[in-house]
Amino acid sequence: EIVLTQSPATLSLSPGERATLSCRASQSVSSSLAWYQQKPGQAPRLLIYDASHRATGIPARFSGSGSGTDFTLTISGLAPEDFAVYYCQQRSNWPRTFGQGTKVEIK
Amino acid sequence: EVQLVESGGGLVQPGGSLRLSCAASGFTFSSYAMTWVRQAPGKGLEWVSAISGSAHSTYYADSVKGRFTFSRDNSKNTLSLQMNSLRAEDTAIYYCAKDQSSYGFSYYFDYWGQGTLVTVSS
Predict the structure, then answer these.
(1) How confident is the model at residue B31 (pLDDT cuts 50, 70, 90)?
(2) Given CA atoms A4, B50, A44, A92 in this order, what sign does their dihedral have?
(3) How far is A94 from chain B (nearest CA, A)?
(4) Mean pLDDT for the stretch of residues A63-90
């Protein structure tokens, strides 16, 4: 099973600041990685797929990069609605797996 | 508009069984693989199981293999997750999710239901 390790666990930032979230895979997943956003009481929302492609309707301030084992989600300027938990997920191997999440909170 | 509506959650005793359903609409159901993802209270997301569009193939997480069975009825646009031998650690919100692409098999998930809560407790 591929283990995805996200860091940091919590990121405390102010609106307008840049957020950089990391996801590291225990073995190469090529570019087969997605990022999701989840707000309290809601289902997750797909943000990025195949490491760097924005999903439909996702604002340009969200960007993804990386390949192999190291991936980054960047939010270029945090909007008030971006404070949430973010998960990475791989589709390279069975079983599919998620990272443990990074909470982006208001500083 | 794509809609996924889960049902069937509830309180069940350890060792018991429960059957979850997910009703889908707004897309060509049989063309898409579907997946169950669960989330224990206050915890992260856990991939549970996936089924191909044709229902010919299924995959399971090791944590549920042999206890859960994922099926679909493409004539009724519905999914079912039969959960047997339930344990306390199966307590979670269970989400059904649609593959983003019709050529994927549990690749990425662009639509999710609202979830149904399963509580396993005596």
Answers:
(1) very high
(2) positive
(3) 8
(4) 98
